[in-house]
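Need C-alpha cells for this chain, all 63 residues.
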Amino acid sequence: MEGNVKENWQFWRPVVLKVLSYTEAIAMSEEQLANVNKSIDVQISKDRAEQRKVASLSKCKCK
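Here are the C-alpha cells for all 63 residues:
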C-alpha cells in the first residue's frame, strides 16, 4: 500500500493535508490535481518565509 501512496502522491497529498476530500480529489483530472499541488507548494513557501521572518525578528536585540 505504501508504494501505491508514493506513486499517487499527487492525488493523496491534498487529501492528507485536508485541502480536498477524497471525493473531491477523485473527481479531478490529473491537471487539476497538479494545480492543487502547485498551490500547496506556494502556500508552504509563503508559510516558511513568514516563519523565517518571525524567527529573525525574535532574535533581534533592537529597541
